[in-house]
Amino acid sequence: MSVSDSDVRRIAKLARLRLSDEEVARFGGQLGKILDAMAELGGLDTKNVPPTESVLGTANAPREDEPRPFAGRERLLENAPDRDGPYFKVRKVIE
Amino acid sequence: MSTDLTELSAVRLAAMVRAGEASAEAVARAHFARLERLEPTVKAFLLVTKDLALAQARAVDEKRRKGGTLGALAGVPVAIKDNLQVEGVETTCASKILKGHVAAYDATAVARLKAADAVLVGKTNLDEFAMGSSTENSAFQKTTNPWDPARVPGGSSGGSAAAVAARMVPLALGSDTGGSIRQPAAFCGVVGLKPTYGRVSRYGLVAFASSLDQVGPFSRTVADAALALSVIGGRDPMDATSARREPPPAALPVPKDLKGLRVGLPREYFIAGIDPEVEAATRAAVEVLRGLGATVKDVSLPHTKYAVSTYYILAPSEASANLARFDGVRYGASDRSAKTLEESYELTRGGGFGPEVKRRIMLGTYALSSGYYDAYYAKAQRVRTLMAGDFKEAFSEVDLIACPTTPTPPFRFGEKTEDPVAMYLSDVFTIPSNLAGNASLSIPCGRTAGGLPLGLQLISDVFCEAKLLSAASAFEAARPFPVFKE
Fold first, then answer.
1. Do residues B295 and B412 make contact, with C-beta atoms less than 8 angstroms apart?
2. Residues 6+ positions from B263 with CB-CB distance below 8 Å
3. CA-only gyration radius of chain B, Å
4. For B434-479, how does the pLDDT look when each residue is reduced to its tens digit (9 = 90+)?
5. Which of B163, B339, B440, B446 could form a disulfide with B281 if both were Cys (CB 3.0 to 4.6 A apart)?
6. What is the CATH number of domain A5-43?
7. What CATH number is given to the structural domain containing B110?
8. How far is B315 from chain A (nearest CA, A)?
9. Mean per-residue pLDDT, B20-40
10. Per-residue burial over A42-61, b = 16 or more CB atoms within 10 Å of its CB, e = otherwise
11. B180 is catalytic
């Protein structure tokens, strides 16, 4: 099978990826081929099989939520493409 | 004649530095001399932090001079895969989207190496975001296999494997999500250990597929792998999935024989299509185990044939969520031409990620999207339970499973890049351990007629690394592998 151009574009939109027309065509074919290979799972009966939630079967591990100072704050901010003092700057989202 | 320090193991180097037989600085300089000579061909490193390393080495020497107690890895040069954070040093994941990103903190595994007085020499190349099996998906360079520069080193931790094989370092860290430590270890003729899921903290490892990712060491000896695991393993409050268990001790005795050890050969792994030289080397390795006194029997892992499909639904699904954080706001590349926030996400990500990363984000987004979730993601999580059950059943009969690490010897550049499914199949023997969470390692077990390394994979049940490493060390003693000379 091949994933249609419109499906590829819909998925790319969900994934926040801008794709070129050439990429849309290429991914459509490749995703189709990969999904074909994966269709083999459909033949397995898993009605009574629980999904794996954790390979170790570990339960939640709650702890006290205690704030601690982080020494690398300035270094984190230095990585920002655009900042305003201690804030990350983004484009306007509210009119 | 003076010893070539680059031929020595981490265990030996640390002992020499502690005893004052060699300075940490001399050890570091010997390795840098070799690195600088071979790196133009091997291209294992994205960044060499020589000044930092020499400063660390001198600090180790100073600590000794002042009578301080040196750590388990005193003066041992270690290379770090560039998806692990080293404070103050760039972490790129071999992706354009993270070019220029400087880590604000150490990964726990890295912090523990530092605390053990290791010397960090630099960041190694990988497939972008650890997605790949040849390191060809790096946005920056192609690492070559030291044994044959026309061939890939494997992946995704190809830089770490090649650096250890070429004796630029005795030890390196990698990460393994579907075989990314074991497969390049096999291709480069070194030891690669994927610990049990939860054995090593993932804090500071850039997440690819969080339920599968595990940090582990590359080395040229089994004893070095055990030493490294004893340093980096153990509970970490910064990773809620790290296990509350002590790692095995640093020094495991090498057993004289393997009497009483039960080794299983999974029928489903000796499949049609496996390379004849790989199969012959694996069977010869199993005879070595038998010769050491192990009993060998066939076992069945009936869901093996579904492993690749299961993995390539689950790993991309988790990746599509994990990689959502690369949006051009807090770090890395950011497209300046966008008018709106949404457009800035799309352009930054569309331009910053390479083809394989985009392909997997698309695949994962598809598998998780409304209408497809049950058929793909939920289904794969159920099949994962069946695969873990296969191993439980097998480990009720045997202590270890032995099989090839990879279905083929190291392949040539470009051989599989056009066909994603063919590339994915090179992980068929390594993926099951990630899905089930088992510990497993690859150890060199021979070479092809053309001289290319081949790996034997040994798999143990969860948290049985001591058994795994001790059997591997007996195998190593019985079947030593030649050191790479030039």
1. no
2. B286, B289, B290, B294, B295, B296, B297, B398, B399, B400, B401, B402
3. 21
4. 999 999 999 999 999 999 999 999 999 999 999 999 999 999 999 9
5. B446
6. 1.10.20
7. 3.90.1300.10
8. 13
9. 98
10. eebebeebeebeebeeeeee
11. yes
